[in-house]
Amino acid sequence: MAESMTGYGRSESSVESRRFLVEVKTVNNRFCDVQIRMPRVLFPLEPLFKETITNRLIRGKADVFITMNDSGSAGTAVIPNIELARAYSEAISNIAASTGRPDEADAGMISRMPDVLSVDTIECDPELLKEGLMAILSDALDAVVRMRKTEGDRLTKDVLEKTDSLAGMMREVADRSSLVPAEYRERLKTRMESLLSDAAGIYYDEGRAEAEIAIFADRCSIDEELTRLDSHLKQFKTALKSDGSIGKRLDFIVQEINREINTIGSKANDLTITNRVLEMKTELEKIREQIQNLA
Description:
Layout: E1 7-15, E2 18-27, E3 32-37, H1 46-57, E4 60-70, E5 76-80, H2 82-99, H3 107-111, E6 117-121, H4 126-177, H5 180-196, H6 200-203, H7 206-219, H8 223-240, H9 247-267, H10 271-291
Parallel strand pairs: 3-4
Antiparallel strand pairs: 1-2, 2-4, 5-6
């Protein structure tokens, strides 16, 4: 079934003693536009992330946020400067010997001396994180797809109802179109009798009137347009129920439906049909707006 292009998903887990949170938000877009915000250390994995996301989402603009937090001491290292510590120790011993005081400097005291200990950040290897990160990303994408399918089912139901309404209007137009030539004949006859009065029998040529009616009937015939419109509506419903990316195909079919409705309106030469055509165009515009949300 059709999927909406609007969705959100998140997943969180630990990989190599680091905590990762992946959030994916998608909205409408003609193509698949993926923007990823993540720590610099993960940049080598960006092409793989984008390929995975594109294959899953097909269409829509996706904003992906990947955050990384170190748990405990993960990602940091305390580095002792042994040479500097030895120099401090010797200096303290010399001071003690020179002043006749006891040398009470222990390791704890020396470690607190300036620059004896330093804290450094350990750069993680993205290759070691790849498998775990891909699993977290996949979970987030699963949540996005579930939401998109739920929204897609709702949109599909609404669009199908509007399509059935449009088909009902088309049948009303078809029924009405068969009456238009006969009504034109009656209007023409009434008009001639009104203009010519008692002389109508002398000047009124029944054969010529029938020829004019035949020309009128041919000019305002919409049988071909109705046949094509019926075919387009059936194709639209079939496409709407199919799997995969269908948004662009539906948009093309809607253009063809609109073309036939416009032609019917221009050829019908009947107020009732014209009014119904206006209602059909309004309903079609609602359908067009809804399918813009489908992938």
